[in-house]
Amino acid sequence: MSLPVFLEGRLSLPLIGSPLFIISQPALVIAQCRAGIVGSFPSLNARPSGMFERWLQQLGEALTDRDAPFAVNLIVHKTNSRLEEDLALCVKYRVPIVITSLGAREDVNRAVHSYGGIVLHDVINNGFARKAIQKGADGLIAVAAGAGGHAGTMSPFALVEEIRAWFDGPLALSGAIATGRSIAAARMMGADFAYMGSPFIATQEANAEPAYKQMIVDSGAADIVYSDYFTGVLGNYLRPSITAAGLDADNLPKASEMDFSSAAGGAKKAWRDVWGAGQGIGAIRDIQPAGDFIAQLKAEYRAAIAAFAA
Q1: How far apart are CA 152 and CA 233, in angstroms?
Q2: 225 vs 178, 249, 256, CA distance in Å?
Q3: Which of 106, 233, 250, 276 is deepest in the core (most CB within 10 A)?
Q4: Mean pLDDT over the full length of the chain
Q5: Which of 45, 31, 51 has the alpha carbon at shortest distance from 80?
């Protein structure tokens, strides 16, 4: 594995819990890190902006060197008016891992490197991957077809193969990963980590409405709709939630532009009741504590590795 030194011995499973809009908050991140995986959250989940610093203080008090480190996701896009403020707090509190999305910036990478943090940048194709590394990112998150939220369209086989042809640093793979077997498969394909989000929506610690959690349990891949209408970036969403919002899921208009001002506290309507999810949710059977779910993943992962070796 291409692990940074500070991760050695702190992970009990090669898994990063991906940052989930609205859903990922300290309770879930703490449960993930204590169970031995990297927990993460978008800085924009902490609103108003002063809440972000309080969350960083809370995580610093709750987690120790015996736990896995946590990560903060920064939306690196011109419509995110909070970027500079949130980056300064990441530096102040020495956030160990920063996940950057929707833009690679050298100044952001330098700021994180100034205190010894690392930057993982999410990409949907090989071209974006090269640009991210050229601008100073330490590692990559390959967001393949089937991932929840903002997702690409490339097969994970193709995307990982193209990246690994030239990059041997830390690489996580996202896209319909929902079981320990799929974590093992990601490793066998050449990724260092799996990157999993949608299954954690159906955990007790997730900051999601009960109806959202139950919809994850009740739905499968056929219930996922791919659209850019809600944020201006193509992503995967639950069809029943789109219908409940009064929209025709099969005839959504194209977005005019990318805009994250609502997520940063702007006036534009945020589609809070249109819920994201990836194609792997057919594997989710019930709502349970995050620690129990991660224990299940560990058992499945060990069994998959043992079966392959046999």
Answers
A1: 10
A2: 18, 7, 18
A3: 276
A4: 92
A5: 45
Q: What is the pTM of this model?
A: 0.91
The DSSP secondary-structure symbol of 38 reads B
State pLDDT tens for residues 185-239. Answer: 999 999 999 999 999 999 999 999 999 999 999 999 999 999 988 888 888 999 9
Quote the distance between the C-alpha of residue 56 and its chain's center.
18
CA–CA separation, 237 and 289 (whole Å): 23
Q: At what angle do helices 26-34 and 50-62 cross, to 10 degrees?
A: 20
Most distant CA pair in the chain: distance in Å?
A: 57
pLDDT at 233: 84
Distances in Å between the Cα of 55 and the Cα atoms of 16, 30, 42, 50 are 19, 11, 11, 9
Of 95, 49, 99, 53, residue with least CA distance to 74: 99
One-letter amino acid identity for 106?
Answer: E
User: Domains in the chain, start-ordered, CATH in brackets?
Assistant: 5-208+288-309 (3.20.20.70)
Radius of gyration, CA atoms only, the chain: 18
Structure token digits, residue 66: 């015996």
Bin 246: left if φ > 0, else alpha if -120 < ψ < 50, else beta. Answer: left
